[in-house]
């Protein structure tokens, strides 16, 4: 049954933002007040401070002791971001970043999130955890107006990597998602990761790659439009969205966000866990010059990982994980191997690896020189 609060929230949204009056439709808000309370008084509580992607907050790879209640805080921020040089998006974000920050807990832990909708915002927001059970992943228990906060707790029952995103109802869902409102949670097995044989696996560092497809409108002159606020951007953005052709496909919110001075860094011999999420479209991560030693393509750690993959597949609305030990120094390109999207639309990251070159793995036997085409090279042809 639709509660009185849901009706009031819908009315408030329409009053605050007339342009969205025809589109806004909050989903049913669950009334769970009659359910028996869960007694978790014996469990230890810990607080985790979320950090900006591609980094991930401190965490243990193996769970220490009994399940815990892991507390997080996250603020919803509507703001303009620069997607490319001179190209701007009226974004909706979790904690001010695109993607939202990655959370890490262990199977059996309880996630307790306090979600703040900043009073400066214009829109209703909520959060749907693909890792949670019931109530639209928490979406129908977390719908908040600007200036409101809510706290949701759920038990992490399934290990793996999972998407979370905003899902306020109806046509607002895809708009909020492609405006930046998605992130990832990793639920580690209590004993940590294991390989295809069931043996323990550890990583030296985690990089979180959040891939986003953006749909930024152009004017009659072919120039990208810039809008005063998120509400003004909706009608034109909706038209581009419904064409299903993104203007940009990027990692971590911007073309070049993980290249050049912003490149990721690792050392030769380090094992890096790449966690990759895409809340809306399918994607095909590939590490140029490397491989997926162990790949949880669908991101679920109860399943044995694939081995030695060149390219792996992340279905839209999911997150996957790949572990690679860097064997050579140099610059590696981590891309969406739809190369049009990688090179022309922005889905590229770089990993700079320090170390000593190993000629046994690869050697330039001869540097490029000119040759006599009249006599050389003809034997190469069939």
UniProtKB/TrEMBL annotation:
What is the catalytic activity of this protein?
nitric oxide + Fe(III)-[cytochrome c] + H2O = Fe(II)-[cytochrome c] + nitrite + 2 H(+)
One matching Pfam family, short form?
Answer: Cu-oxidase_3
UniProt keyword Protein biosynthesis, yes or no: no
According to UniProt, this protein's pathway is: Nitrogen metabolism; nitrate reduction (denitrification); dinitrogen from nitrate: step 2/4
* Sequence ranges assigned to domain Plastocyanin-like in this UniProt record: 78-190, 207-356
For this chain's UniProt record, which GO biological process terms are given? nitrate assimilation
Task: Provide the binding site for Cu cation.
Answer: 125, 130, 165-166, 176, 181, 337
Known EC number(s)? 1.7.2.1
Please name the GO terms that the record assigns under molecular function.
Answer: copper ion binding; nitrite reductase (NO-forming) activity
Q: Which Gene3D superfamilies does the record cross-reference, listed alphabetically?
A: Cupredoxins - blue copper proteins (2.60.40.420)
Q: How is the cofactor bound?
A: Binds 1 Cu(+) ion.
Residues making up the signal peptide according to the UniProt record: 1-21
- Its top-level enzyme class, in one word, is oxidoreductase
The cross-references to CDD domains, in alphabetical order and at most eight, read: CuRO_1_CuNIR_like
Q: Name one GO cellular component term.
A: periplasmic space
The protein's matches in InterPro entries, at most eight in alphabetical order, are given as: Cu-oxidase-like_N, Cu-oxidase_2nd, Cu-oxidase_fam, Cupredoxin, NO2-reductase_Cu, TAT_signal
Q: Which cofactor does it need?
A: Cu(+); FAD; Cu(2+)
UniProt entry keywords in alphabetical sequence: Copper, FAD, Flavoprotein, Metal-binding, Nitrate assimilation, Oxidoreductase, Periplasm, Repeat, Signal
Q: Indicate where this protein is primarily found.
A: periplasm
Q: Which top-rank group of organisms is this from?
A: Bacteria
- Localisation per UniProt entry: Periplasm
Stored PANTHER family: FI03373P-RELATED (PTHR11709:SF394), MULTI-COPPER OXIDASE (PTHR11709)
Family to which this protein belongs: Belongs to the multicopper oxidase family.
Q: How does it assemble?
A: Homotrimer.
This protein is called Copper-containing nitrite reductase
What organism does the record attribute this protein to?
Pseudooceanicola nanhaiensis
């Amino acid at each position: 049954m639709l509660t009185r609060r849901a009706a009031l929230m819908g009315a408030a949204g329409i009053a605050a933002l007339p342009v969205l009056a025809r589109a806004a439709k909050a989903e049913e808000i669950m009334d769970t007040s009659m359910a028996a309370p869960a007694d978790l008084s014996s469990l230890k509580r810990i607080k985790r401070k979320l950090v900006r992607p591609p980094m991930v907050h401190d965490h243990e790879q193996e769970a220490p002791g009994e399940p815990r209640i892991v507390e997080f805080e996250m603020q919803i921020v509507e703001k303009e971001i620069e997607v490319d040089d001179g190209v701007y998006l009226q974004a909706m974000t979790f904690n001010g970043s695109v993607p939202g920050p990655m959370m890490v807990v262990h199977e059996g832990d309880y996630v307790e999130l306090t979600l703040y909708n900043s009073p400066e915002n214009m829109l209703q927001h909520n959060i749907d955890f693909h890792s949670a059970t019931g109530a639209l992943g928490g979406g129908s228990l977390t719908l908040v107006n600007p200036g409101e906060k809510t706290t949701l707790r759920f038990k992490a029952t399934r290990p793996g990597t999972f998407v979370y995103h905003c899902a306020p109802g109806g046509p607002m869902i895809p708009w909020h998602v492609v405006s930046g409102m998605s992130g990832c949670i990793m639920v580690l097995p209590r004993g940590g990761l294991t390989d295809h044989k069931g043996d323990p696996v550890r990583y030296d560092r985690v990089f979180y790659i959040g891939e986003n497809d953006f749909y930024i409108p152009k004017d009659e002159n072919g120039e990208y439009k810039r809008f005063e606020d998120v509400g003004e951007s909706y009608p034109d953005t909706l038209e581009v969205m419904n064409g299903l052709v993104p203007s940009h496909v990027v990692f971590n919110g911007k073309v070049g966000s993980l290249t050049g001075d912003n490149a990721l860094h690792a050392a030769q011999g380090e094992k890096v866990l790449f966690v990759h999420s895409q809340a809306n479209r399918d994607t095909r991560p590939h590490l140029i010059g490397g491989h997926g030693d162990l790949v949880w393509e669908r991101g679920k750690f109860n399943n044995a990982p694939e081995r030695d993959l060149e390219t792996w597949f992340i279905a839209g609305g999911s997150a996957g994980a790949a572990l690679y030990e860097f064997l050579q120094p140099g610059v590696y390109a981590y891309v969406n191997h739809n190369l049009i999207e990688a090179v022309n639309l922005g889905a590229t990251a770089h990993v700079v690896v320090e170390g000593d070159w190993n000629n046994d793995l690869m050697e330039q036997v001869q540097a490029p020189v000119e040759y006599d085409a009249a006599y050389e090279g003809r034997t190469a042809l069939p």
